[in-house]
Amino acid sequence: MGSTNDKIKGSTNEVIGNAKQGVGKAVGNDRMEAEGKMQEVKGEGQKAMGKAKEAVKDTVNRKL
Predict the structure, then answer these.
(1) Does pLDDT of 1 surpass 90?
(2) pLDDT per position as a tens digit, 11-61
(3) Is the pLDDT of residue 64 over 80?
(4) Cα distances (angstroms) measured from residue 15 to each of 10, 40, 43, 56, 64
(5) Residue 35, exposed/middle/buried by CB under 10 A (0-12, 13-18, 19+)?
(6) To 10 degrees, what angle do helices 30-63 and 3-27 make?
């Protein structure tokens, strides 16, 4: 998977995770709130992976 795809999927997971957290908190559903937090953290990891891949690619391209 490319860096752009990782960043897009990460952003999507962050948005959905935040929404789940908000809904979970609003309706008093601790499980949904926790799932939302996990999804948000997953998204942050995906975005970080995308940024790391991009940095490696940029470094390799500069050395060529």
Answers:
(1) no
(2) 999 999 999 999 999 999 999 999 999 999 999 999 999 999 999 999 999
(3) no
(4) 9, 7, 8, 26, 37
(5) middle
(6) 160
* Alpha helix stretches (DSSP H) within the chain: 3-27, 30-63
DSSP state of 28: T
16 and 57 Cβ atoms separated by less than 8 Å: no
Give the residue from 39, 46, 49 showing the smallest Cα distance to 15.
39
Contact criterion met (CB below 8 Å) for 48 and 9:
no
**Are residues 21 and 37 in contact, defined by beta-carbon separation less than 8 angstroms?**
yes
- The two structure tokens encoding residue 38: 């996990």
pTM of the model: 0.86
